[in-house]
Design goal:
Length: about 190
């Protein structure tokens, strides 16, 4: 959402933000290789996600006044202090959402710790007054946007990593695509 006249008049700076989990280095390389293979094999056309930008969104918050970053971090601090636990996460399936033209990766089984983290964030953010999307959480990692696919391959083996932290990300749109900048990081115990 672009800045409104009120934002400009009051000097408010807006930021597009979300909480997410980033794959570790090994998984990030595997994911980047998979994106390239899908494109090179002409299985799917579209705009691929840069390997360094592939992530698992926990909660998308959207446009917020930059002055509210501290409140977002406070919510995350409270969740960290509540003992949110680290967990293993495995991606096992390549899927295609025809309705919004996205090729993505998904787990077969969703770890309970992931659902607990997402629910904790949603509850904390709602209590702090942040409006959130009201749809069921569907964990996925976007590989290709504006996709058109003939057929998708099966993953030869799962792509897995140990999730030991989550991050608050500021997203900026540029002519070269999205640039993601971490605002804060919180460890999982």
């Amino acid at each position: 959402m672009p800045a409104t006249e009120e934002d400009i008049a009051t000097g408010r700076r807006m930021a597009r933000v979300f909480f997410a989990i980033w794959p570790d280095n090994k998984a990030q390389k595997q994911l980047g290789s998979l994106v390239n293979r899908l494109r090179l094999e002409s299985l799917c056309s579209g705009r691929k996600t840069k390997a360094e930008n592939i992530h698992l969104t926990l909660v998308f918050i959207g446009e917020v006044d930059s002055s509210k970053m501290e409140a977002l971090c406070k919510v995350a601090d409270e969740i960290r202090e509540s003992g949110a636990r680290a967990f293993d996460f495995a991606i096992e399936e390549i899927r295609y959402w025809k309705h919004n033209h996205i090729v993505y990766l998904a787990p077969r089984d969703v770890p309970a710790e992931l659902i607990d983290l997402v629910n904790g964030l949603r509850n904390g953010l709602s209590t702090a007054g942040f409006p959130l999307e009201q749809r069921d959480y569907a964990p996925h990692l976007t590989l290709i946007r504006s996709a058109c696919c003939r057929v998708l391959p099966e993953l030869a083996e799962p792509i897995a990593w140990r999730v030991s932290e989550w991050v608050l990300i500021r997203s900026e749109q540029t002519s070269d695509g999205s640039i993601y900048s971490p605002v804060g990081r919180w460890p999982l115990s």
